Structure formats: C-alpha cells, structure tokens
Amino acid sequence: QQSAQPQQTKAGTQQKLKKKPIDAANLADIVINVHPKNVPYSLLALRRQWQGRLKLNAEVFTHSSIPESELTEAAKDFTKKLMTVDDRQYVGLNITLIWKDVTTTEMVSSPSKLIPVYGEINIIRFLNRIGPNEFHYEINNHEANLHDQVLDICYLLSKKHTNNERQQFVKQLSQRLGSDQFFNGSPSLTISDIAVSSILKKLLDDNAKGLPANLVSWIANNSY
User: Fold this and answer.
1) Are the C-beta atoms of residues 212 and 170 closer than 8 Å to each other?
2) 132 with 177: CB under 8 angstroms?
3) Residue 81, CB half-sphere, CA atoms under 13 Å: how many?
4) Which residues have CB under 8 Å from 217's CB, separation 6+?
5) 60-71 confidence digits (pLDDT tens)
6) Alpha-carbon torsion 157, 137, 80, 218, what sign?
7) What letter would DSSP give residue 70?
8) Is the distance from CB of 13 to CB of 188 less than 8 angstroms?
9) DSSP code string of 144-161
10) Whole-number Å distance between alpha carbons of 17 and 13
11) Which of 31, 184, 144, 33 is nearest to 99 (CA)?
12) Which residues face 95 on adjacent strands?
C-alpha cells in the first residue's frame, strides 16, 4: 500500500501588503565580511527589489588578509555594480562590504551589539525583515513555510558537498520552480528568487555543469 504524498501548494495568491513609510531611524549601518570566492550576489538582487523604496548605499574595502591575487574577476565585477551610486532622494541603508579571509559570510549591525549573523541566507532573512514591508515573506505561516523550504535548500547547497549531493539540491530547486517565472508561484521577485539567484550564480562561477533547462533559462533572467 502506497503512502499518500503531501501536495505542495504555491504562494501564487500572495497577499498584497500596503506600503508603510520607512523610518530611517530604525536603519543601522551594516558591515558584511565575506571571502571573494563567495560573492554575495543577493545584495544586487535586493537593490533591484528595493528600487525607489530603500536605497542601498555601499562601500567596499579589502582586508589585509586578502592579497590582490585572490580578488577574482567575479568579485571585482560585483564591486563595481554594488558601488553604483543612486543619486535619487529617498531613504538609504548603509552597507560596508569587506573582502576578508573568512570561512563563512558574516554580518554585524549596531542594534545587535555586534553579535554576528552568519551565512548569506540568514543575512538575506535579516535584510528582508528590515527592508520595505511589502516584500516581507512572513505574511502568513503558509507562505513563510514555502519560502523557508527554498531558503533551507539554498543553505544546504552553499555548503561544501559532493557533486552528487549538490545535484540533488539543484534538482529540488528545479522541481519547485517548474515552469513558473518566479519561485513558489509568486507573481514577482521574492526572497526565494533572491537566494536562488545568488547560489546558482556562484555555481556558474565555479563552472558547474548540468543545470536543468528551466533553471538555466530562469537564471538568465534573474542574474544581477
């Protein structure tokens, strides 16, 4: 006798949230330490998503632990894009990114009393919560669960696994995307898409081969 398989539902009926004014007093400066081999592409996707609502003001520095030879072309290109200035007048969040010899991407901000947040996926979660309210993914338990499942797959994929293990995680992402334009059947860019686009871009930087066709075309439209 076969056991019943749980059906996966999508968040295509995502609730529309009324935009709330952003209080600049609640935005503390953020510092992110990251190795140049682990480029946090999610920051570029967040900048696109927040455009016109919350400006991402970025400065980039290189710590003495990183020699010039370790600054990859991907890291240099990312630096140029991240430091692009938006001169329009609206609320901004200041981020200082430091290329540093760290094993895990880490973030510190003033309100947390310098207690770090580790890992790009957890940093994305943090930034989503302090960013424009209409993009918050914890609207209800159902949608939060769908997005958390994708974020967890991205977290596992970011770890050092064998190629076979990576392919299993990539297959799960491919199945969750299906033929949709955005993950979880959403009508627009969400935290899931931001996380997936960053992790897949890093796989492509590592010359990963064999991505499913739907992810290949999806990443072409969601690479920042």
Assistant:
1) yes
2) no
3) 18
4) none
5) 999 999 999 999
6) positive
7) G
8) no
9) HHHHHHHHHHHHHHHS--
10) 12
11) 33
12) 30, 58
Q: Which amino acid is at 180?
A: D
Q: Is the pLDDT of residue 13 over 50?
A: no
CA pair distance 49, 85, nearest whole angstrom: 16
Q: In 3D, which of 66, 186, 205, 82 has the Cα closest to residue 134?
A: 186
CB 194 within 8 A of CB 222: no
**Which residue type is seen at 110?**
S
Q: How confident is the model at residue 113 (pLDDT cuts 50, 70, 90)?
A: low
Pairwise CA distance, residues 63 & 135, whole Å: 33
CA distance 6 to 82: 41
Q: Work out the average pLDDT over 48-56.
A: 94
Sheet with 55-62, side-by-side order of all strands = 55-62, 92-99, 30-34, 106-109, 117-118
Q: Are 108 and 116 spatial neighbours (Cβ–Cβ below 8 Å)?
A: yes
pTM comes to: 0.86
> Which 3 state secondary structure label does DSSP give 55?
strand
How many residues make up the chain in this entry?
224
Structure tokens at 210: 């064999």
Rg (CA), the chain: 18
